[in-house]
Specification:
The chain has 189 residues and is mainly beta. Helices cover 10% and strands 51% of the residues. The protein has one domain: Sandwich (Immunoglobulin-like), CATH 2.60.40.
Length: 189
């Protein structure tokens, strides 16, 4: 086979292969939210609580990466991913790392991951992800990192820090509790 013919075949292959659009993602909103309409709750053994919530509507309360711990607090982010022009849906991988949580059965979790199938409209995915602190055992301080991956490419990442808030009382002594001793009553416990 002549060199000229091999070069022609090489260029024919390159021209016939579709060029993949650059896939990029961005966080469009983040913080903690009120639930405007209840999401559906589904069993998912991969998640720390064993459940995930999907759907429903949320309203941003405060845009912040510092999340005060409070039972039933929903925190998370909305995102936009561009570049899936030839698809109707895309499977991404959600990867979440968080402070170590001890579940009621004694098992520990410091994160989870599972596939998510997301709809694509006009080459764009617009969706959200987050976590709802529904149980006392989830009230742990520390860093939470949410990532969305497409194969080996990280498309979106958002980091939050949960902390005990004096106003919410998470981790604080009950001010109305009756002291067990005179020393506790004087504040010398």
């Amino acid at each position: 086979m002549s060199k000229r013919f091999r070069v022609l075949i090489f260029f024919a292959i390159i021209v016939s292969c579709p060029v993949r659009a650059e896939v990029t993602g961005t966080v469009t909103e983040y913080g903690y939210y009120n639930i405007a309409s209840q999401p559906d709750r589904h069993r998912n053994y991969a998640s720390t609580s064993g459940y995930v919530k999907e759907g429903g509507e949320v309203e941003l309360v405060e845009q912040t990466a510092r999340i005060p711990l409070e039972k039933n607090r929903l925190f998370g982010f909305k995102f936009r991913i561009n570049g899936f022009n030839d698809k109707q849906s895309v499977q991404l991988k959600l990867v979440v790392t968080h402070p170590e949580i001890t579940r009621p059965n004694g098992s520990k979790s410091s994160g989870y991951s599972y596939p998510v199938l997301l709809d694509v409209k006009d080459g764009i995915i617009e969706n959200r992800s987050g976590y709802s602190l529904d149980h006392d055992y989830e009230m742990v301080e520390g860093e939470w990192v949410f990532e969305l991956w497409y194969y080996k490419e990280k498309l979106v990442s958002q980091t939050f820090t949960t902390y005990k808030n004096a106003e919410s009382g998470a981790g604080m002594p009950d001010p109305n509790a009756i002291p067990d001793s005179p020393a506790e009553a004087a504040g010398n416990s």
